[in-house]
Amino acid sequence: MNTVPEEFLLAGGTSITALPKVSLHDHLDGGLRPSTIIELGDAIGLDLPADDAVTLGQWFAERSNSGSLVEYLKTFDLTTAVMQTREGLVRVAREFVQDLGADGVVYGEIRWAPEQHLSRGLTLDQAVEAVQEGIEEGIDDVNQNGSGIRVGQLISAMRHTNRAFEIAELAVRHRDRGAVGFDIAGPEAGFPPSNHRRAFDYLAEHYFPATVHAGEADGLESIRSAIIDGRALRLGHGVRLAEDIVIERQDDENTYVSLGPLAQWVKDREIALETSPSSNLQTGAIAAWGDDLLDHPFDLLYQLGFRVTVNTDNRLMSATTLSRELALLADAFDYDLTDLEVFQLNAASSAFLPLEDREELADIITAGFEGS
Q1: Domain CATH for 107
Q2: Which of 216, 274, 325, 341 is the catalytic position?
Q3: pTM of the model
Q4: Does 169 qualify as catalytic in the annotation?
Q5: Which of 150, 240, 324, 332 has the greatest number of C-beta atoms within 10 Å?
Q6: pLDDT in tens, 82-129
Q7: Which residues contact 173 (CB under 8 A, 6 or more apart)?
């Protein structure tokens, strides 16, 4: 059914892979299996840089490690090329869910931009329906394998095009058929959420939640626009919010900081930060602080009480899984099982689910961690 994921362990030997996890920021076109790209690519005559899965996977990881979001996004030309038919979308979505389930994810939100999948004749609605079909097949596969998973679609609009209002209508139209939220994605700098205020107004009028990519390739003004113009309940990445935090002084035991008004607002309102550590390194999102995971402001934000969550962003491009991202953070910042549980409970609390379902999800997380 699915590939067997690499197992990641905490220092004490606990399997991170086996722990129940929540994935909030995971792109459909960034999570394909290299072998699937090759098979689907052959069927349409797509010219690929490698003809074996291992080499192709390495190519994606190497090309994505550019330090630039714009360059990073160019690798998606290949993945979206094999996702232009109903059959391609169904297969990719099904395998995507299978791979989440194999990694211990019990709830996932899959974000993708339907407007990028219309070159072979699909309509927007047909594309969403195809992905939903694949998701449901993947859920059945995971359940039959003895695990359990729940998955929703985050319908994204590309922020550099003019279709956001149309995509917002699409998302609301499918709210009872798999869609759980809205997002804008693509090049961040120069394309603020304010450009799509009409779409966000429409979503608010229909009580439909939004998360917004902000604070990745642009700074505080982008985050501010996401909150004010986009009414964002979560921030996609959001790591550059740390630019609004001033370290006043440090001693051997403590770091003393002051929060700017934007950072204070995000913290006080518990607006979740959808951080993706490996991706943030690849795209240069944390360049202001350094180029190593130890330089990532994740731990600062966590220690200050922000609602941080851990995500993969694009598993193919970062050659990663959610378990691996958690293992990397645990190794870098000496986190233990309690810390990892906090990150999962943060994600459960921030999921675009009804309150009762979020509480049930939190219970699943707690029970899984207690039994580990």
Answers
A1: 3.20.20.140
A2: 216
A3: 0.96
A4: no
A5: 240
A6: 999 999 999 999 999 999 999 999 999 999 999 999 999 999 999 999
A7: 125, 179
